[in-house]
Amino acid sequence: xxxxxxSSDTRVGTGPTAGETGDLVPERLExxxxxxxxxxxxxxxxxxxxxxxxxxxxxxxxxxxxxSGPLLIVLAVVPVLVAIGxxxxxxxxxxxxxxxxxxxxxxGRALLxxxxxxxxxxxxxxxxxxxxDLAPLAAGAGTWLLVAGHVLTLVxxxxxxxxxxxQPGTPVAAEFEDSEPESRKRLLGWGLLFGGLATIGLxxxxxxxxxxxxxxxxxxxxxxxxxxxxxLIALAAILGCVFGGTARTxxxxxxxxxxxxxxxxxxxxxxQIAASTVDWLESDWRSxxxxxxxxxxxxxxxxxxxxxxKRKESKPLDQSGDRVHMVAGVLAILAGMAAILGQAxxxxxVEIPTDVPINQTDELIILSxxxxxxxxxxxxxxxxxxxxxxxxxxxxxxxxxxxxPMLSVAWVGVPLAGFLALDAVVTATSTSGAIRxxxxxxxxxxxxVLAVAAAITAGAAGAIERDDVDLTDRSSNIIxxxxxxxxxxxAVGAFGLPTMRADQYVAPGIxxxxxxxxxxxxxxxxxxxxxxxVAARSRPARGAALMFGAAxxxxxxxLEVPMTGARAEGSAAAAGTWLALATIAALVxxxxxxxxxxxxxxxxx
Length: 605
Fold this sequence. Notes:
Number of helices: 22
Mean pLDDT: 80
Distance between the termini: 54 Å
């Protein structure tokens, strides 16, 4: 035969593997021993997840809001059944990918279940239990079975995340050397699209409750474990899609997307079905974006890519980079638009009970300690404009590579401003039950997630660029060290010290009064320090772009007083603002030094 037979997970055999008529018969790949063990571990985890709700997550607790037992069993065992099915079909790499994808969401799901041990009354899990009074409820054996099941799921995925558990030189390990660039780009692009949609849906509350014993919590006013676990699940969903799209082989990537999608459905479907079947629960349509995104991920994974590969040859490396630049630019623009919408809408709303007289409304708001017109989200405007501008520049092919390093740092301005806004929401909703998170909260969360996705994609574009550049001779620019060292020193003070001072106001900080806003300060400080270190060893143009991007992040921080100072009476600029201006000056000077002074070539030894 002159034609060449290719198969994604098989090898062509002759002789003993040939049929009676001489036709070639595919020979199955030998399943790695570690993959077999991982499937057994994942099956044990699925069994624990399936029997945990039946055993009881709480001691002596009332039943669930509906008969969710069969649904929970199906959602627990489906990922393992899919992995086993792929093994039987001779696709060990795809089977390992399913285990890896499911493992991405396991830590966040474990935190959600641990809320039953911390305080079951605020867990809000109608598919498992609905309290009937305010008496304390102790965690039952089912809670620990669920947590153990998530741990085993995580362990199973970790066992096969490298080469599907195969040893180097084996046929399965060789599958990771046969990369399909076009298929990988398709998985990354569509995976980010549907993964981003699912992530936004995961941030939304699945229902509204009319039952006083089942709170309709969201990620901004829920208990700590629920908030942390929910955010971790949302972040893991988008990171899993990025991992699937950038895997060494699309065979692994498709499996990862399926695993992530099934884990997302296991998180959202029980609550959504409860909302549609229980009379005193009302569905929130926004959470269905997660369901649609998960279905889209499955479609991307199972949709045949062979036709597309036959119609066109693989693109050169520079064209692959152009596509990734375009994806990063689109994500940055979406992140910026979400940030601007977060600034234009209300952070929280005050819901006055109907039995409160109108003349007591102002008193209630004053007692809650919250001013109706919050200024905490105004910093989202400059952060959004910055990433939109860089996103547009990344869509212009001739100059995309110049501005890509700037986006790799400047995206941090969105979480810096976003966590400041979310800090106000958390403070307000925890102060009074009459205050709820507004639309700005959800746009802010979406902006942060999209900014992270844009940063990851920009990093992937940078990796493609470096594949085409000879970096054996690293350059060293001694003159650049002085302004960079000054910028790093100033940055520590800029983010570590308060930018604003006022009577009866204590600013969030890194060293003291650590709050939600402090996480934005930590991320921004680390981003500026890392960018400065990397810029010192980068090519001049790329190093200058990194420092300009870092200067943009610090500029967003320096605008805190003029844009949000009205949230505190008698506010004035403090040391952090002046050190932020000094940091910007040092970074800009460093950028021009990097462009003007040619570094000395590194000496070979």
